[in-house]
Amino acid sequence: MEVQEKVPVQTFMGVDRDVFLRDIYPKRRPAVLRGVCLGPCLDKWTAEYLVQKGGDMEVKVHVSTVPEMDFLHKNFVYKTLPFSEFVKRASEKKHTEFFLSEDESYYLRSLGEDVRKDPADLHKQFPGLAEDFYIPQFFESNQFFSSVFRISSCGLQLWTHYDVMDNLLAQVTGTKRVVLYSPQDALHLYLSGDKSEVLNIDSPDLDQYPEFMKAKRYECVLEPGDLLFIPALWFHNTLALQFGVGVNVFWRHLPADSYDKRDPYGNKDPLAATRALQALERALHTLDELPPEYRDFYGRRMIQRIQKRTHCDMNAHEQSTSTLPSSDTKPG
Ligand SMILES: O=C(O)CCC(=O)C(=O)O
Q: How far, in Å, is the centroid of ligand 1 from the Cα of 297?
Protein backbone atom coordinates (compact mmCIF):
# COMPACT_ATOMS: atom_id res chain seq x y z
CA MET A 1 0.00 0.00 0.00
CA GLU A 2 1.16 3.55 -0.68
CA VAL A 3 2.33 5.39 2.42
CA GLN A 4 1.01 8.81 3.27
CA GLU A 5 3.71 11.37 3.95
CA LYS A 6 4.01 11.72 7.75
CA VAL A 7 5.43 14.72 9.55
CA PRO A 8 5.83 15.13 13.31
CA VAL A 9 4.30 18.30 14.73
CA GLN A 10 7.12 20.48 16.02
CA THR A 11 7.42 20.63 19.82
CA PHE A 12 8.57 23.77 21.65
CA MET A 13 9.74 23.95 25.26
CA GLY A 14 9.46 26.87 27.63
CA VAL A 15 7.17 28.97 25.47
CA ASP A 16 5.88 32.24 26.94
CA ARG A 17 3.58 34.81 25.37
CA ASP A 18 6.41 36.68 23.65
CA VAL A 19 7.95 33.56 22.13
CA PHE A 20 4.54 32.29 21.02
CA LEU A 21 3.59 35.57 19.36
CA ARG A 22 6.98 36.09 17.75
CA ASP A 23 8.13 32.62 16.67
CA ILE A 24 5.14 30.29 16.52
CA TYR A 25 1.86 32.09 15.90
CA PRO A 26 2.81 33.94 12.69
CA LYS A 27 3.85 30.67 11.00
CA ARG A 28 0.24 29.41 11.07
CA ARG A 29 1.36 25.83 11.61
CA PRO A 30 0.40 23.47 14.43
CA ALA A 31 2.83 23.29 17.34
CA VAL A 32 3.03 21.34 20.59
CA LEU A 33 3.91 23.62 23.50
CA ARG A 34 5.36 21.71 26.43
CA GLY A 35 5.82 23.10 29.92
CA VAL A 36 3.34 26.02 29.83
CA CYS A 37 1.75 26.50 33.26
CA LEU A 38 -1.85 25.24 33.13
CA GLY A 39 -2.55 25.47 36.86
CA PRO A 40 -3.45 22.95 39.59
CA CYS A 41 -5.75 20.99 37.22
CA LEU A 42 -2.72 18.89 36.22
CA ASP A 43 -2.51 17.37 39.72
CA LYS A 44 -6.12 17.66 40.75
CA TRP A 45 -8.30 16.48 37.88
CA THR A 46 -8.57 12.79 38.62
CA ALA A 47 -11.87 11.13 37.72
CA GLU A 48 -12.76 10.97 41.46
CA TYR A 49 -12.11 14.70 41.90
CA LEU A 50 -14.16 15.61 38.82
CA VAL A 51 -17.04 13.42 40.02
CA GLN A 52 -16.97 15.12 43.40
CA LYS A 53 -16.30 18.73 42.35
CA GLY A 54 -17.99 18.87 38.93
CA GLY A 55 -21.44 18.38 40.40
CA ASP A 56 -24.63 17.08 38.92
CA MET A 57 -25.18 19.59 36.16
CA GLU A 58 -26.77 17.86 33.17
CA VAL A 59 -24.47 17.49 30.17
CA LYS A 60 -25.26 16.33 26.66
CA VAL A 61 -22.80 13.65 25.57
CA HIS A 62 -22.03 11.45 22.57
CA VAL A 63 -22.49 7.73 23.29
CA SER A 64 -21.22 5.20 20.78
CA THR A 65 -21.15 1.40 20.62
CA VAL A 66 -17.73 1.56 18.94
CA PRO A 67 -15.01 4.06 19.82
CA GLU A 68 -14.60 5.29 16.21
CA MET A 69 -17.44 7.78 15.92
CA ASP A 70 -18.92 7.88 12.44
CA PHE A 71 -20.92 10.99 11.49
CA LEU A 72 -21.79 9.51 8.08
CA HIS A 73 -23.62 6.47 9.43
CA LYS A 74 -24.42 8.03 12.81
CA ASN A 75 -23.19 5.16 14.97
CA PHE A 76 -23.60 7.31 18.08
CA VAL A 77 -26.47 8.92 19.96
CA TYR A 78 -26.74 12.04 22.09
CA LYS A 79 -27.75 11.42 25.69
CA THR A 80 -28.05 13.58 28.77
CA LEU A 81 -26.38 12.64 32.04
CA PRO A 82 -25.38 14.39 35.27
CA PHE A 83 -21.71 15.46 34.83
CA SER A 84 -20.56 13.22 37.70
CA GLU A 85 -22.25 10.14 36.22
CA PHE A 86 -20.80 10.94 32.79
CA VAL A 87 -17.24 11.14 34.22
CA LYS A 88 -17.73 7.86 36.06
CA ARG A 89 -18.86 6.08 32.90
CA ALA A 90 -16.26 7.66 30.59
CA SER A 91 -13.46 6.60 32.92
CA GLU A 92 -14.55 2.94 33.19
CA LYS A 93 -14.26 0.21 30.56
CA LYS A 94 -17.43 -1.76 31.30
CA HIS A 95 -20.60 -0.20 32.59
CA THR A 96 -23.28 -1.60 34.86
CA GLU A 97 -25.64 1.12 33.68
CA PHE A 98 -25.54 1.96 29.99
CA PHE A 99 -27.63 3.15 27.00
CA LEU A 100 -26.53 0.92 24.10
CA SER A 101 -24.00 -1.68 25.27
CA GLU A 102 -21.94 -2.44 28.35
CA ASP A 103 -18.69 -1.32 26.69
CA GLU A 104 -20.04 1.82 25.00
CA SER A 105 -17.78 4.88 24.64
CA TYR A 106 -18.50 8.40 25.86
CA TYR A 107 -17.45 11.87 24.71
CA LEU A 108 -18.21 15.30 26.10
CA ARG A 109 -17.78 18.49 24.13
CA SER A 110 -19.19 20.94 26.66
CA LEU A 111 -21.75 23.52 25.55
CA GLY A 112 -22.85 26.99 26.60
CA GLU A 113 -25.80 28.04 28.76
CA ASP A 114 -28.17 28.33 25.80
CA VAL A 115 -26.75 25.68 23.46
CA ARG A 116 -28.06 27.44 20.36
CA LYS A 117 -26.59 30.84 21.23
CA ASP A 118 -23.89 30.78 23.89
CA PRO A 119 -20.34 29.49 23.42
CA ALA A 120 -19.06 27.11 26.13
CA ASP A 121 -17.25 28.83 28.97
CA LEU A 122 -15.75 26.73 31.76
CA HIS A 123 -16.07 29.66 34.17
CA LYS A 124 -19.82 29.80 33.61
CA GLN A 125 -20.70 26.10 33.37
CA PHE A 126 -18.08 24.64 35.75
CA PRO A 127 -16.95 27.50 38.05
CA GLY A 128 -15.60 25.10 40.71
CA LEU A 129 -13.28 23.44 38.18
CA ALA A 130 -12.48 26.47 36.02
CA GLU A 131 -10.35 28.01 38.78
CA ASP A 132 -7.94 25.04 38.52
CA PHE A 133 -7.25 25.70 34.82
CA TYR A 134 -5.16 28.70 33.78
CA ILE A 135 -5.91 29.87 30.25
CA PRO A 136 -2.59 30.72 28.58
CA GLN A 137 -2.48 34.48 27.93
CA PHE A 138 -1.38 34.11 24.32
CA PHE A 139 -4.07 36.37 22.88
CA GLU A 140 -5.92 39.53 23.94
CA SER A 141 -8.78 39.00 26.37
CA ASN A 142 -11.30 40.57 23.95
CA GLN A 143 -10.42 37.87 21.39
CA PHE A 144 -11.54 35.08 23.73
CA PHE A 145 -14.41 33.05 22.28
CA SER A 146 -14.89 29.87 24.31
CA SER A 147 -13.34 27.32 26.67
CA VAL A 148 -14.59 23.80 26.08
CA PHE A 149 -14.29 20.57 28.06
CA ARG A 150 -13.18 17.57 25.92
CA ILE A 151 -13.57 14.43 28.00
CA SER A 152 -13.29 11.06 26.29
CA SER A 153 -13.37 7.36 27.03
CA CYS A 154 -10.19 5.46 26.25
CA GLY A 155 -10.06 4.76 22.49
CA LEU A 156 -12.60 7.41 21.49
CA GLN A 157 -11.85 8.85 18.05
CA LEU A 158 -13.28 12.11 16.77
CA TRP A 159 -13.56 12.55 13.01
CA THR A 160 -11.35 14.91 11.04
CA HIS A 161 -12.77 18.42 10.95
CA TYR A 162 -11.75 22.07 10.93
CA ASP A 163 -12.78 25.04 13.04
CA VAL A 164 -12.72 28.65 11.94
CA MET A 165 -10.99 30.08 15.02
CA ASP A 166 -7.51 29.71 16.41
CA ASN A 167 -7.34 27.08 19.11
CA LEU A 168 -5.18 25.92 21.98
CA LEU A 169 -6.03 22.35 22.93
CA ALA A 170 -4.79 21.60 26.45
CA GLN A 171 -4.35 17.97 27.45
CA VAL A 172 -4.85 17.90 31.21
CA THR A 173 -4.95 14.16 31.95
CA GLY A 174 -4.46 11.09 29.77
CA THR A 175 -2.71 10.94 26.42
CA LYS A 176 -4.17 11.70 23.02
CA ARG A 177 -2.97 11.19 19.46
CA VAL A 178 -3.76 14.08 17.17
CA VAL A 179 -3.42 13.89 13.39
CA LEU A 180 -3.62 17.15 11.46
CA TYR A 181 -3.87 18.13 7.80
CA SER A 182 -3.12 21.49 6.27
CA PRO A 183 -5.96 23.60 4.81
CA GLN A 184 -3.97 23.37 1.58
CA ASP A 185 -4.79 19.65 1.49
CA ALA A 186 -8.54 20.29 1.66
CA LEU A 187 -9.08 18.83 -1.83
CA HIS A 188 -7.63 15.48 -0.73
CA LEU A 189 -9.87 15.06 2.29
CA TYR A 190 -13.30 14.42 0.72
CA LEU A 191 -15.09 17.11 2.70
CA SER A 192 -18.68 17.08 3.73
CA GLY A 193 -19.06 20.59 5.14
CA ASP A 194 -16.45 21.01 7.89
CA LYS A 195 -15.75 17.24 8.18
CA SER A 196 -13.75 14.71 6.19
CA GLU A 197 -15.63 11.64 4.97
CA VAL A 198 -12.45 9.59 5.39
CA LEU A 199 -13.15 8.14 8.82
CA ASN A 200 -10.51 5.45 8.96
CA ILE A 201 -7.43 7.62 8.53
CA ASP A 202 -5.06 4.78 9.49
CA SER A 203 -6.28 2.33 6.89
CA PRO A 204 -8.36 4.31 4.39
CA ASP A 205 -10.33 2.70 1.60
CA LEU A 206 -8.24 3.90 -1.33
CA ASP A 207 -10.68 2.67 -3.95
CA GLN A 208 -13.21 5.05 -2.47
CA TYR A 209 -10.77 7.83 -1.45
CA PRO A 210 -7.74 7.60 -3.80
CA GLU A 211 -6.75 11.26 -3.34
CA PHE A 212 -6.46 10.87 0.43
CA MET A 213 -2.91 9.53 0.15
CA LYS A 214 -1.80 12.91 -1.20
CA ALA A 215 -2.66 14.66 2.06
CA LYS A 216 0.38 15.21 4.28
CA ARG A 217 -0.26 13.74 7.72
CA TYR A 218 1.03 15.78 10.68
CA GLU A 219 1.00 13.83 13.92
CA CYS A 220 1.71 14.22 17.64
CA VAL A 221 0.88 12.50 20.91
CA LEU A 222 -0.20 14.91 23.62
CA GLU A 223 0.89 14.14 27.19
CA PRO A 224 -0.66 15.66 30.31
CA GLY A 225 0.37 19.31 30.44
CA ASP A 226 0.85 19.71 26.69
CA LEU A 227 -0.84 22.39 24.63
CA LEU A 228 -1.45 21.97 20.94
CA PHE A 229 -1.80 25.12 18.88
CA ILE A 230 -4.29 24.35 16.09
CA PRO A 231 -4.46 27.30 13.70
CA ALA A 232 -7.90 28.08 12.26
CA LEU A 233 -8.78 25.89 9.23
CA TRP A 234 -6.26 23.14 10.06
CA PHE A 235 -8.02 19.78 10.02
CA HIS A 236 -7.62 17.64 13.12
CA ASN A 237 -8.56 14.12 14.18
CA THR A 238 -8.20 13.04 17.81
CA LEU A 239 -7.79 9.59 19.32
CA ALA A 240 -7.82 9.23 23.11
CA LEU A 241 -5.12 6.70 24.01
CA GLN A 242 -6.40 6.72 27.60
CA PHE A 243 -9.41 8.15 29.41
CA GLY A 244 -8.54 11.81 29.33
CA VAL A 245 -9.62 15.32 30.13
CA GLY A 246 -8.79 18.24 27.89
CA VAL A 247 -9.87 21.84 27.53
CA ASN A 248 -9.67 23.76 24.33
CA VAL A 249 -9.75 27.51 24.05
CA PHE A 250 -10.89 29.19 20.86
CA TRP A 251 -10.13 32.82 20.12
CA ARG A 252 -10.93 35.16 17.27
CA HIS A 253 -8.12 35.54 14.85
CA LEU A 254 -10.09 37.76 12.41
CA PRO A 255 -11.93 41.00 13.27
CA ALA A 256 -15.01 40.11 15.37
CA ASP A 257 -17.48 41.15 12.66
CA SER A 258 -16.03 38.58 10.22
CA TYR A 259 -17.68 35.76 12.15
CA ASP A 260 -21.25 34.51 12.15
CA LYS A 261 -22.82 35.80 15.39
CA ARG A 262 -25.06 32.72 15.62
CA ASP A 263 -22.18 30.31 16.00
CA PRO A 264 -21.79 28.89 19.52
CA TYR A 265 -19.29 26.23 18.30
CA GLY A 266 -16.69 28.32 16.48
CA ASN A 267 -17.09 26.23 13.35
CA LYS A 268 -19.39 28.27 11.10
CA ASP A 269 -17.56 29.67 8.11
CA PRO A 270 -16.77 33.39 8.23
CA LEU A 271 -19.57 35.51 6.75
CA ALA A 272 -17.60 36.42 3.60
CA ALA A 273 -16.78 32.73 2.98
CA THR A 274 -20.45 31.80 3.34
CA ARG A 275 -21.40 34.51 0.85
CA ALA A 276 -18.71 33.31 -1.58
CA LEU A 277 -19.90 29.68 -1.29
CA GLN A 278 -23.48 30.79 -1.88
CA ALA A 279 -22.36 32.74 -4.97
CA LEU A 280 -20.64 29.60 -6.24
CA GLU A 281 -23.87 27.61 -5.79
CA ARG A 282 -25.70 30.30 -7.80
CA ALA A 283 -23.01 30.16 -10.50
CA LEU A 284 -23.34 26.37 -10.72
CA HIS A 285 -27.08 26.74 -10.97
CA THR A 286 -26.61 29.21 -13.82
CA LEU A 287 -24.38 26.73 -15.67
CA ASP A 288 -27.29 24.29 -15.60
CA GLU A 289 -28.88 26.46 -18.31
CA LEU A 290 -26.25 25.09 -20.74
CA PRO A 291 -25.86 21.66 -22.36
CA PRO A 292 -23.42 19.23 -20.63
CA GLU A 293 -20.30 19.88 -22.76
CA TYR A 294 -20.65 23.64 -22.20
CA ARG A 295 -21.22 23.12 -18.46
CA ASP A 296 -18.06 21.03 -18.38
CA PHE A 297 -16.01 23.55 -20.35
CA TYR A 298 -17.10 26.62 -18.37
CA GLY A 299 -16.81 24.66 -15.12
CA ARG A 300 -13.15 23.98 -15.99
CA ARG A 301 -12.59 27.65 -16.74
CA MET A 302 -14.06 28.55 -13.36
CA ILE A 303 -11.75 26.04 -11.65
CA GLN A 304 -8.77 27.52 -13.46
CA ARG A 305 -9.77 31.03 -12.38
CA ILE A 306 -10.07 29.97 -8.75
CA GLN A 307 -6.79 28.04 -8.82
CA LYS A 308 -4.92 30.96 -10.32
CA ARG A 309 -6.32 33.36 -7.76
CA THR A 310 -5.91 31.20 -4.63
CA HIS A 311 -2.43 29.96 -5.56
CA CYS A 312 -1.25 33.52 -6.13
CA ASP A 313 -2.68 34.52 -2.74
CA MET A 314 -1.00 31.55 -1.01
CA ASN A 315 2.37 32.22 -2.65
CA ALA A 316 2.24 35.84 -1.50
CA HIS A 317 1.34 34.67 2.03
CA GLU A 318 4.15 32.09 2.11
CA GLN A 319 6.66 34.68 1.02
CA SER A 320 5.54 37.10 3.71
CA THR A 321 5.72 34.46 6.52
CA SER A 322 9.10 33.10 5.35
CA THR A 323 10.64 36.54 5.88
CA LEU A 324 9.58 36.57 9.57
CA PRO A 325 12.39 36.52 12.17
CA SER A 326 13.68 32.98 12.58
CA SER A 327 12.95 31.04 15.77
CA ASP A 328 15.50 30.97 18.54
CA THR A 329 13.33 28.55 20.51
CA LYS A 330 14.70 25.03 20.71
CA PRO A 331 12.37 22.46 19.18
CA GLY A 332 12.12 19.67 21.79
O1 LIG B 1 -9.71 16.80 21.91
C2 LIG B 1 -10.68 16.44 21.26
O3 LIG B 1 -11.30 15.43 21.51
C4 LIG B 1 -11.16 17.27 20.11
C5 LIG B 1 -10.50 18.60 20.05
C6 LIG B 1 -11.07 19.48 19.00
O7 LIG B 1 -11.76 19.08 18.09
C8 LIG B 1 -10.75 20.89 19.06
O9 LIG B 1 -10.01 21.31 19.95
O10 LIG B 1 -11.25 21.64 18.19
A: 41
Does the beta carbon of 246 sit less than 6 angstroms from any atom of ligand 1?
yes
Is residue 158 within 6 Å of ligand 1 at its C-beta? yes
Is residue 314 scored above 60 in pLDDT? yes
Q: Domain check: are 221 and 275 in the same one?
A: no
Same domain flag for 137 and 253: yes
Phi, psi of 246 (to 5 degrees): -130, 165
Q: Are residues 251 and 284 in the same domain?
A: no
User: Could you list the residue range(s) of the whole structural domain that residue 286 is in?
Assistant: 271-322
Check whether residue 308 and residue 250 sit in a common domain: no
Could you tell me the CATH number of the domain that includes residue 52?
2.60.120.650
Number of domains in the chain: 2
Per-residue confidence (pLDDT) for residue 266, from 0 to 100: 84
153 C-beta closer than 6 A to ligand 1 = no
Could you read off the pLDDT of 67-123 as tens digits, one per residue? 999 998 899 999 999 999 999 999 999 999 999 999 999 999 999 988 888 899 999
**What digits encode the pLDDT tens for the residues 108-164?**
999 998 888 889 999 999 999 999 999 999 999 999 999 999 999 999 999 999 999
pLDDT tens-digit series, residues 266-284: 889 999 999 999 999 999 9
DSSP labels for 273-325? HHHHHHHHHHHHHHHTTS-HHHHHHHHHHHHHHHHHHHHHHHHHHHHHHHTSP
- Measured in Å, residue 267 CA sits from the centre of ligand 1 at 12
Task: Say if 327 falls within a structural domain.
Answer: no
Whether residue 173 is found in the same domain as residue 295: no
